[in-house]
Fold this sequence. Notes:
Blueprint: E1 20-22, E2 25-27, H1 29-43, E3 49-53, H2 57-69, E4 73-77, H3 82-92, E5 96-98, E6 110-111, E7 130-135, E8 145-149, H4 150-164, E9 171-174, H5 181-194, E10 197-200, H6 206-215, E11 220-223, H7 225-233, H8 235-240, E12 246-249, H9 256-266, E13 271-276, E14 280-284, E15 298-299, E16 303-308, E17 323-329, E18 335-336, H10 340-345, E19 347-348, E20 351-360, E21 366-371, E22 376-379, E23 382-385, H11 386-394, E24 399-409, E25 413-422, H12 430-440, E26 449-452
Amino acid sequence: MTDHLLAALDGGYGDHPAAVRVGDEAVSWEALRRRADSVAARISGLPAVAVHAAATMDTVVAVVAGLRAGVPVVPVPHDAGEVERAHVLRDSGAAAVVGDAPWPDHGLPVVPHGAAAMGWAPPAADPHTAGLIVYTSGTTGAPKGVVLSHGALAAGLDGLAAAWEWTPADVLVHGLPLFHVHGLVLGVLGALRVGCRLVHTGRPTPEAYAAAAEAERGSLFFGVPTVWGRVAADVTAVGALRSARLLVSGSAPLPVPVFDQLVARAGQAPVERYGMTETLITLSTRAAGERRPGWVGLPIDGVRTRLVAEDGGPVPHDGATIGELQVAGDTLFDGYLGRPDATAAGFDGQWFRTGDAAVVDAGGFHRIVGRMSMDIIKTGGYKVGAGEVETALLAHPDVAEVAVVGLPDGDLGQRIVAFVVPADGATPDPAALAQSVAGSLSVHKRPREVRLVDELPRNAMGKVQKSRLG
Length: 470
């Protein structure tokens, strides 16, 4: 039978002895299929299986096995703590763990990687079958399991292939974690669907990306802003990426100075895109279109968006008025596992409430301002987007990183507070930084307080955890 999601494993793109490389291990698509089917034959019929999602070939094999067997795969972060891991294993209903996992006493049967199964064939492809159960970060309680169907995964990847002109001729390079949508869905399943070679560098270092550009002729590179900031600062590495066709940034906003550095040093503007675990990637600038710093472009094929005001009314597409971004279309998740209440609360009819604040211009270009609950600061009767204050501060030469939040204030309701990581060797004056914002934006958008810090708290994907600031 044919597995419609992972088309490269069906033989339609021929083969390559190093079609998939993870670190120092490389396999052909045929070898990957054989290894995955040996696992798939033994997990077929299970309700779900868990995978210790380290950046290894075994992780790729286990995920492919689940998808080919029609068994939902639960990627467990390799750095998950004991409480989080126990919740994920229990809540997901995983009936087994595929491969070795350094988890003591997890109490589940282990399905080892082994010899190829003779005579086993995958069931007929069904787009409604659950493919992955990916757990959210749990910023508002225990992590919830997001159920992603084969059909949603295929729709998202096809939309991105069209937007990025992604073809079998590409060589995809990245070193991102394999337990999130970015690294796993785009960075592994995308290559297996499009039929291009994949090089996972183990870690997303500038040196590794430069080496892959030269030795593997990498053409398509994925990274998060932290990665791109380090690459742009490494003259040798960023120079090697001049041969790449496309640099893609996501998972967090890319600072405008990093965007500008990539333009100057790598010879091209990066593509920025937006999505969530629940929606997959829904917005992107285009390979052949405008790439505007700070903006994440247009909906991909099969996706629709709208902006909604606090009173439920529409928001004008004027590039300035902020509303909640809502999404509809083929890439949406099936719901939160075992949480019909949370699923219902997340939707307004067919529209998923992202909780993200955005603006849209007259041409349909989207810019994400931040979270409605965290990044829209109501101060002295004004609504201020934390993102535009951060952008203004990042333009200052003494600022390396910044996060802006609204903290309770008896007079203003909320006061704007900026947490600033100084640039190397700089000793910025907080008052001068605040005044620079007043000069470039407006007086009411200036930080009332600037705190200098050594670093910002981040999660595994490089997103700043603003809830820990205050």
